[in-house]
Design a protein that fits this description.
Helices cover 59% and strands 6% of the residues. By secondary structure, the protein is mostly helical. It has 2 domains: 79 residues, Multidrug-efflux Transporter Regulator, Chain: A, Domain 2 (Orthogonal Bundle); 37 residues. About 8% of the residues have low confidence.
Protein backbone atom coordinates (compact mmCIF):
# COMPACT_ATOMS: atom_id res chain seq x y z
CA UNK A 1 0.00 0.00 0.00
CA UNK A 2 1.47 3.33 -1.02
CA UNK A 3 1.71 6.39 1.18
CA UNK A 4 -0.81 9.19 0.69
CA UNK A 5 0.60 12.09 -1.32
CA UNK A 6 -0.82 15.61 -1.18
CA UNK A 7 -0.52 18.35 -3.75
CA UNK A 8 0.20 21.83 -2.40
CA UNK A 9 -3.45 22.92 -2.56
CA UNK A 10 -4.59 19.83 -0.67
CA UNK A 11 -1.87 20.22 1.95
CA UNK A 12 -2.66 23.91 2.44
CA UNK A 13 -6.38 23.21 2.78
CA UNK A 14 -5.79 20.47 5.37
CA UNK A 15 -3.58 22.84 7.38
CA UNK A 16 -5.90 25.82 6.92
CA UNK A 17 -3.08 27.80 5.32
CA UNK A 18 -2.52 29.52 1.99
CA UNK A 19 -0.31 27.83 -0.59
CA UNK A 20 2.12 30.77 -0.61
CA UNK A 21 2.76 30.13 3.10
CA UNK A 22 3.90 26.58 2.35
CA UNK A 23 6.14 27.82 -0.46
CA UNK A 24 7.63 30.45 1.87
CA UNK A 25 8.22 27.90 4.63
CA UNK A 26 10.22 25.80 2.17
CA UNK A 27 12.67 28.69 1.87
CA UNK A 28 12.92 29.08 5.66
CA UNK A 29 13.02 25.48 6.88
CA UNK A 30 15.63 23.28 5.16
CA UNK A 31 13.96 20.15 6.57
CA UNK A 32 10.93 20.87 4.41
CA UNK A 33 11.71 19.66 0.90
CA UNK A 34 8.71 18.08 -0.81
CA UNK A 35 9.34 16.02 -3.89
CA UNK A 36 8.30 17.45 -7.24
CA UNK A 37 6.75 16.11 -10.38
CA UNK A 38 8.39 16.58 -13.78
CA UNK A 39 6.30 19.74 -14.14
CA UNK A 40 7.54 21.11 -10.80
CA UNK A 41 4.38 20.50 -8.80
CA UNK A 42 5.07 19.93 -5.11
CA UNK A 43 4.08 16.60 -3.58
CA UNK A 44 3.87 16.33 0.20
CA UNK A 45 4.13 13.01 2.03
CA UNK A 46 2.71 12.22 5.48
CA UNK A 47 6.18 12.98 6.89
CA UNK A 48 6.07 16.40 5.22
CA UNK A 49 2.57 16.96 6.59
CA UNK A 50 3.74 16.13 10.12
CA UNK A 51 6.58 18.63 9.76
CA UNK A 52 4.18 21.27 8.40
CA UNK A 53 1.84 20.73 11.36
CA UNK A 54 4.77 21.17 13.75
CA UNK A 55 5.91 24.36 12.00
CA UNK A 56 2.36 25.73 12.10
CA UNK A 57 2.10 24.86 15.79
CA UNK A 58 5.40 26.59 16.62
CA UNK A 59 4.66 29.71 14.59
CA UNK A 60 0.91 30.15 14.90
CA UNK A 61 0.06 28.53 18.24
CA UNK A 62 3.26 29.07 20.23
CA UNK A 63 3.91 32.47 18.66
CA UNK A 64 7.52 31.73 17.85
CA UNK A 65 9.59 33.57 15.30
CA UNK A 66 10.79 31.68 12.24
CA UNK A 67 14.32 31.76 13.62
CA UNK A 68 13.15 30.32 16.94
CA UNK A 69 11.06 27.63 15.28
CA UNK A 70 13.99 26.72 13.05
CA UNK A 71 16.20 26.32 16.13
CA UNK A 72 13.62 24.09 17.81
CA UNK A 73 13.34 21.90 14.71
CA UNK A 74 17.13 21.68 14.43
CA UNK A 75 17.33 20.65 18.07
CA UNK A 76 19.45 23.62 19.17
CA UNK A 77 16.57 25.02 21.23
CA UNK A 78 13.99 23.31 23.37
CA UNK A 79 10.56 24.53 24.34
CA UNK A 80 9.96 24.67 28.07
CA UNK A 81 6.30 23.72 28.20
CA UNK A 82 6.03 25.03 31.78
CA UNK A 83 6.61 28.64 30.68
CA UNK A 84 3.91 30.79 29.11
CA UNK A 85 3.81 30.32 25.33
CA UNK A 86 5.16 33.75 24.39
CA UNK A 87 8.10 33.45 26.77
CA UNK A 88 9.34 30.29 25.07
CA UNK A 89 9.34 32.06 21.72
CA UNK A 90 12.21 34.42 22.52
CA UNK A 91 15.57 34.35 24.24
CA UNK A 92 15.95 35.63 27.81
CA UNK A 93 17.75 38.81 26.72
CA UNK A 94 15.17 39.53 24.03
CA UNK A 95 12.40 38.92 26.53
CA UNK A 96 13.99 41.32 29.03
CA UNK A 97 14.35 43.99 26.33
CA UNK A 98 10.68 43.56 25.48
CA UNK A 99 9.72 43.94 29.18
CA UNK A 100 11.86 47.10 29.51
CA UNK A 101 10.19 48.63 26.44
CA UNK A 102 6.74 47.80 27.82
CA UNK A 103 7.57 49.36 31.21
CA UNK A 104 8.92 52.48 29.51
CA UNK A 105 5.74 52.76 27.44
CA UNK A 106 3.58 52.44 30.56
CA UNK A 107 5.67 55.12 32.33
CA UNK A 108 5.26 57.50 29.39
CA UNK A 109 1.52 56.88 29.36
CA UNK A 110 1.20 57.48 33.12
CA UNK A 111 3.36 60.61 32.99
CA UNK A 112 1.32 61.97 30.10
CA UNK A 113 -1.96 61.36 31.96
CA UNK A 114 -0.66 63.07 35.08
CA UNK A 115 0.63 66.12 33.22
CA UNK A 116 4.30 65.20 33.53
CA UNK A 117 5.75 65.25 30.06
Amino acid sequence: MSEKIYRIGEAAALLNLKTYVLRFWETEFPQLAPSRTNTGQRLYTEVDMTLLRRIRQLLHEQGMTIKGARRVLEGSAVLDEKLPERVTAVSDSTFMQMIRREIAAVRRLLNHRHGRA
